[in-house]
Amino acid sequence: MKVACVGGGPAGLYFSILMKRQNPSHDITVYERNAAGSTYGWGVTYWGSLIDSLHVHDPESAVAISENSVRWSDGIAHVGDRKTVHHGDTGFGIGRRRLLGILTERARALGVRVEFEHTITDAAELPDAELVVACDGVGSALRERHAGHFGTESTAGHNTYIWLGTTKIFDSFTFAFVETEHGWIWCYAYGFSENGSTCIVECSPATWTGLGLDKACEADGLALLERLFAGPLDGHRLIGRAHADGSAQWLNFRTLTNRTWHHGNLVLLGDAAHTTHYSIGAGTTLALEDAIALAGALRGHSGGHSREHGRGGSDVHAELRPALVQYERERRSALLPVQSAARYSAQWYENLPRYIHLDPPQMFALLGQRHSPLLPHIPPQLYYRIDRAAEQLEALRRLKRWLGPRVARTLHARSRASGG
């Protein structure tokens, strides 16, 4: 099969690796619009279950990713001058540039062509490709060419955030909440190498404008943030990635969905198909899992011989369709709980004043429970007591798991009926 992957992120590169492993005769090219090594972002996170899955599907890249990752098992929350520690599951961080380098090297070793500084904005530019994989991100140009067919919907989040790096090496996943005269501002920080960490700063629009961050150039904005988070940063500097005009890259997170994920021989992968709020740290994992599912659905597909048999493009599309339908069905089902968790996680931060004045251990416990559909509808201290009791009583724990989604669906339906 002749395959073109548009976008050289984790999804497209890993998909190309898996397809080459399945059948070395596949003709695969990955097109990346940026130069090699010029990736955005600092570090990404993942959990142990992902590396286990990667070992199953391509041990070589899994070993390289694992060896280049840092790990932590504690979460730390700073609330003003108070601090609390939570001992939890082991998490991992790896520099995005290093991750892409590992996947690029592995793909090329298997015979994949990776072409940098090559922009593709329309699948029609790839007439010989039997399968075109749109893995060109949330703003996918290939998807937007057929936005009506895909049924793309994008919803902007309430809070404002910025993705930064720092020279401070965090050896735990760290949250820091700082109160200002204009409201709370907070960061999530985690190490991704021996040389740096990621630091994502978030706040409400009122706090953002009140602090003057909406008008500050990047240098002035970083200086202010360094003062606000001086404690957790231990005096280290923050590193940004300014726009060409010097302004900082503050954003509102876009939750993106599509009614369908494929059109003819064009299929969406990763952020081009769906996004989940960064506060659950699942973006890279979901992209790699998409790649695994698509490659699995295409395994044994015979469409690669279509030209030899004299069949045209519509026949190729018909042959592909069952595999693409299977991929979409599998991933939609797997994404449902993750998307729900991401939605409630984002809402927890948007309603931070509801939780921030609890005692730090209670606040941190509810931070860990922010994915719960019940939490927004029960007084925080009562929820905390129920949650602690549920840890001791299996029957109460089962009731909590059963009741949460049902209460959430009922309240959501009432809100929609009332126009809220």
Structure summary, number of beta strands: 16
Instruction: Give the uncertain stretches in residue-range form.
Output: 303-311
Order of neighbouring strands in the sheet with most strands: 3-5-4-10-11-12-9-13
Give the mean pLDDT. Answer: 90
Rg over CA atoms, rounded to whole Å, is 23 Å
Number of helical stretches of at least 4 residues: 14
Report the order of strands and helices.
Answer: EHEEHHEEHEEHHEEEEEHHHEEEEHHHHH
Question: Helicity, in percent?
Answer: 40-55%
Beta-strand percent range: 15-25%
Distance between termini? 49 Å
Question: How is the main sheet built?
Answer: 8 strands, mixed
Structural class: alpha/beta
* Shape category: globular
Task: Describe this protein's structure.
There is one protein chain. The chain has 420 residues and is α/β, with parallel strands linked by helices. 42% of the residues lie in helices and 22% in strands. It has 14 helices and 16 strands. It has helices at 10-22, 48-57, 59-67, 96-109, 141-144, 147-150, 205-210, 218-228, 230-233, 283-298, 313-350, 360-368, 380-392, 394-417; strands at 2-6, 27-31, 43-47, 70-79, 82-95, 113-115, 131-134, 153-156, 160-166, 173-180, 183-191, 197-203, 238-239, 254-257, 262-263, 266-268. The strands form three sheets. An eight-stranded mixed β-sheet has the order 3-5-4-10-11-12-9-13. Helix 3 packs antiparallel against helix 4. The longest helix has 38 residues, at 313-350. The model is unreliable at 303-311 (pLDDT under 50).
